[in-house]
Specification:
Length: about 300
């Protein structure tokens, strides 16, 4: 009887493991393939060779790019090289990427930049909040941007179990499988949250006390990564992974693809979703972000290159 029970338990455990593996494969869109969508004028950005995981463009056209992310389970083209921050001025006729110098005293050796958010105060001073993973831990680094010499002055490191302000922790929304990309509407009324493994974008109304209430969910057939907002139109630009399994399993014969979606009128009953760019990995692998400014589009990746396009 004991042997029968043991065999039964092993069978149940195997069935549950298989079910979870299948569910995980489904969340990764393991079987999805995409048809290419090209843009007429694109070029790889010189100098960015080890990823461009996040891109944030200021209203004046200055674009900040994080590069060199090392993340467990994801390929790195330079595992021993510290991360970098780049700047591009999209007002130039032929924009180029310039590495930003970081002030002394900051631990550059373990710098592992991930997501970026920018803030401009009343004096037009630009601050960068950069998610960092030194030694596979998580912090938020606060920098001040000095335009005169293209440098970043490190002001503080924010540490907290929930990665929020060291003064107060407050949960404002819950129920996400993986709340990845987050951004805000141009009027400041709505928060957009990309749930990468649930393949959707949540729209949340922001209240004065920063509590959030759910408005709607837009379901998409792809793994949505970072969200960027066109400040002039309110359109949402999304860097996506059509097949997440390829991102986590390094196979030179089956490269991770890239996909860029544009969402217009997300608050309407029928938002317009357009595939602006798609590539099977031959040009760009593992797209994580897409940001626009003045008819120019920057497409970033988790570990690969970065693309500059004119729309």
């Amino acid at each position: 009887m004991g042997k029968v029970l043991a065999v039964a338990l092993v069978g149940i455990a195997a069935a549950l493991a298989a079910e979870r593996l299948l569910a995980f494969r489904n969340r990764l869109n393991a079987s999805r393939e995409i048809a290419p969508v090209t843009l007429p004028s694109c070029r790889l950005i010189k100098g960015i060779e080890t990823g461009s995981e996040d891109i944030d463009i200021l209203p004046n056209g200055l674009a900040f790019i994080s590069s060199g992310l090392k993340y467990p389970g994801v390929k790195s083209l330079a595992p021993d090289k510290p991360g970098e921050m780049f700047l591009m001025d999209l007002n130039e006729d032929n924009p180029r990427a310039v590495e930003l110098r970081i002030s002394r005293g900051f631990d550059l050796v373990s710098f592992n930049p991930h997501g970026i958010s920018t803030y401009i105060d009343r004096d037009d001073t630009v601050y960068l909040f950069v998610v960092n993973h030194p030694h596979q831990k998580s912090t938020v680094e606060l920098f001040k941007f000095v335009e005169d010499d293209n440098s970043l002055v490190h002001l503080k490191t924010i540490r907290h179990d929930l990665l929020t302000s060291p003064k107060e922790v407050k949960e404002v929304a819950a129920g996400f499988y993986s709340a990845n990309g987050i951004n805000i509407s141009p009027d400041g009324k709505y928060i957009y949250v990309a749930d990468i493994f649930d393949h959707n974008v949540h729209v949340m109304e922001k209240h004065a006390n920063w509590n959030l209430t759910h408005v709607k969910t837009l379901q998409l057939d792809t793994l949505v990564d970072n969200l960027s907002i066109d400040t002039y139109t309110g359109d949402i630009w999304i860097g996506c992974h059509p097949n997440g399994m390829k991102l986590f399993y390094d196979n030179p014969e089956n490269l991770p693809a890239s996909e860029v979606l544009r969402v217009q009128n997300i608050l309407s009953e029928e938002p317009a979703v357009t595939r602006v760019y798609a590539d099977n990995g031959s040009v760009l692998q593992g797209t994580s972000v897409a940001s626009v400014y003045g008819g120019k589009l920057l497409i970033g990746t988790v570990f690969h290159r970065a693309l500059y396009c004119e729309l």
